[in-house]
Automatic annotation (TrEMBL):
Gene3D superfamilies registered for this protein in UniProt: Cupredoxins - blue copper proteins
Leader sequence segment: 1-26
Lineage: Bacteria, Bacillati, Actinomycetota, Actinomycetes, Pseudonocardiales
InterPro entries with a match to the protein in the record: Cupredoxin, Ig-like_OmpL47-like, Ig_E-set
Protein name: Ig-like domain (Group 3)
Protein origin, superkingdom: Bacteria
UniProt region (Disordered), positions on chain: 603-627
Assigned keywords, A-Z: Signal
Basic and acidic residues composition bias: residue spans: 618-627
Length: 627
């Protein structure tokens, strides 16, 4: 009994003791849970400071905090993945937060979670390692709705609507609850075939394509049909088509196009008669592209627009060319401003740290890039606010360039950073934890925890840094795991808000592999292929990763009420093997077909083979293995 059904049963019993009862028509379902989940981010580009790992299904309030108080000086996002297979894709959420935005980096949103697993990550460039998973529990809805499937027939048509030379049938299916398991089609009364790619039909004559789809819950869509005819192209066409180009747009006095030149192609096959098959173009040295609509050319500079056409008889026109030049009408440079933020003393100096934020705007072609340089250094691309902690006088120079190439005049902002009176560096310590073997080696993984205190200095710890083995120095935010087998060393240091840095310390440890696990099937079925009863699937009988083979895993020796029941059981086991990466989807289908052909559970004359061990059925062995 599920936890949900158990709660309802207890409530019904309690009401019965009070002389009350639920209405006889139905027991009301409990209300969907309302919960709050919080994510936090700091000054790291490889992980969130904190993130929930589990939740319950239902309406959920999401809080995303990326604040200066958490040590952040950069933009992060909390984005739910909607494309990677194996995860729920029903939440479209992407929150961008910066400590200096109008919410001071604190944002919230309301979403609805369903049972399953979600993947979340940061989409800011360079932050790809900030990723995690959220497992949502609850009762999933029962899927009884079949998928929908549609057919789209494409190709070149004559005036009567017939496809000339060939027709291509494209099938697509969707399912609102489960995922689509397979699409099948039948061409002109032939055998049902699994659809994997568009079907090209080039036989001359009338055709009918029947099609249907099945979801992973076993629901099958109603069978539908598309009809069409394929005819031969007109014979005797040896004349290539004609194609011309015209260019439109606003011009300057020199004949250059301002901002955009739009190229329109026109093709005809009046002399040949077979009709236009395709028109193509390429811009400068690019690839040939099918022409479907007028082409806007916006990149400033000189361009060569190439074009050609071919008819349905295979005749191609000579390549044509159109020369054009595009210039920008934008001659105004962008504007750029700087804002310096931080805690000031009575003299206007920044205590411990100053953060410089740059903002640029361009009413014409748009801002292309913003750059800055600190104290006469090299120009750097600006992407987010810059935190400066070095004590002393500083000058930040900055500029912006728009997409038309106009650059703003260089501007500067000057300020001074002073220490807060703290001259004592923080104290640091390290703890390495994990399971040890008899030789004091960590088994499989070791967890490194670093701590720092600034009790003597008083300004407070600003950051802890570490480097693993020969890696780069990395900001420490939480304990991290080391999994590589062999010897490892960790170096670490800390700095306080006054700029004092502790001396580097180091430690080393060893990681060893875990001893091999027990063989769960010592008396394994090692036949070469997966055989169900007398039906051979021709799928390799490989080990599933526990010492057991696929034949050990599928129980074909128990009693089943019907062949359909046995096939449903085999379908579930085979899908789990697909999910675990043991077999492919095609091998799953062959195993399911063998289950159908085996006759197990049916009323045929099939004679079931005797178990290799009459004292213990395969079902009992499998049950024991999973207990």
């Amino acid at each position: 009994m599920s936890p949900r059904k158990l709660v309802v049963t207890v409530l019904v019993a309690a009401l019965a003791l009070l002389g009350l009862a639920w209405p006889s028509s139905a027991v009301p379902a409990p209300a969907a849970p309302v919960q709050t989940l919080t994510w936090t981010a700091g000054n790291s580009t490889d992980h969130y400071l904190s993130a929930p790992a589990t939740a319950v299904a239902g309406e959920t309030l999401v809080l995303f905090k990326n604040t200066e108080a958490l040590g952040s000086t950069m933009t992060h996002t909390l984005t739910f993945d909607t494309t990677t297979p194996g995860y729920n894709h029903d939440v479209d959420l992407s929150i961008s937060a910066n400590p200096y935005d109008d919410q001071n980096g604190e944002h919230q949103a309301t979403i609805t979670l369903t049972p399953g697993k979600y993947r979340f990550h940061c989409v800011v460039q360079g932050h790809e390692k900030m990723v995690g998973e959220l497992v949502v529990t609850g009762e999933p809805p029962v899927d009884t709705t079949p998928p929908t499937v549609v057919a789209n027939v494409t190709g070149n048509k004559d005036t009567a609507g017939n496809y000339v030379g060939s027709a291509t049938v494209n099938l697509t299916a969707t399912d609102t609850q489960s995922e689509v398991d397979k699409i099948e089609y039948q061409l002109d009364g032939g055998a049902w075939t699994t659809y994997t790619a568009p079907v090209v039909v080039n036989a001359v004559g009338s055709h009918m394509v029947h099609y249907k789809a099945t979801d992973t819950a076993g629901n099958v869509s109603p069978e539908e049909m598309a009809s069409f005819a394929v005819v031969n192209p007109k014979p005797g066409d040896t004349t290539p088509p004609t194609v011309t180009a015209s260019v439109a747009g606003d011009k300057d006095a020199a004949g250059n196009y301002l901002d955009t030149a739009t190229v329109t192609l026109t093709a005809a096959d009046n002399d040949g008669g077979s009709g236009i098959d395709k028109v193509e173009y390429k811009l400068d040295e690019g690839a040939w592209i099918a022409y479907t609509a007028p082409v806007p050319v916006t990149a400033p500079g000189m361009h060569m627009f190439h074009y050609r056409a071919s008819d349905k008889a295979g005749n191609s026109s000579a390549e044509g060319m159109e020369h054009l030049t595009v210039v920008s009408s934008d001659t105004t440079a962008p504007t750029v401003t700087a804002t310096v933020a931080g805690t000031k003393d009575a003299d206007g100096n920044y205590v411990g740290k100053a953060t410089v934020t740059l903002a640029a705007a361009d009413a014409g072609s748009g801002v292309d890039k913003v750059e800055y340089k600190l104290d006469g250094g090299d120009w750097l691309g600006y992407t987010e606010p810059v935190a400066i902690t070095a004590v002393g006088a500083h000058t930040v120079a900055y500029r912006a360039t728009d997409k038309a190439g106009n650059a703003s005049a260089e501007a500067t902002s000057s300020f001074t950073i002073v220490a807060g009176g703290d001259t004592v560096s923080p104290a640091t310590s390290i703890v390495v934890s994990g399971n040890l073997d008899a030789d004091w080696r960590y088994i499989e993984t070791a967890t490194v925890t670093l701590t720092a205190e600034d009790n003597a200095g008083g300004s407070g710890v600003d950051k802890i840094e570490y480097k693993l083995d020969d890696g780069a120095w990395t900001t420490y935010t939480e304990p991290f795991e080391v999994t590589g087998l062999g010897a490892h060393s960790v170096w670490y240091r800390a700095s306080d808000k006054a700029g004092n840095v502790s001396g580097e310390k180091g430690g080393s440890f060893l990681i060893a592999a875990a001893p091999p696990g027990p063989d769960l099937c010592p008396d394994s079925d090692v036949r070469d292929t997966v055989v169900l009863g007398a039906a051979d699937s021709q799928v390799e009988n490989r080990d599933v990763g526990t010492g057991c083979t696929i034949n050990d895993t599928i129980d074909d020796e128990s009693e089943y009420a019907s062949n359909s029941q046995f096939v449903a059981y085999v379908r579930a086991v085979a899908q789990e093997l697909v999910d675990n990466g043991v077999i492919s989807a095609q091998e799953r289908d062959r195993i399911i077909t063998a289950a159908f052909d085996s006759g197990i559970g049916g009323t045929s004359d099939f004679v079931k083979p005797q178990p290799k061990n009459p004292g213990l059925t395969k079902l009992e062995k499998n049950s024991a293995r999973y207990l």
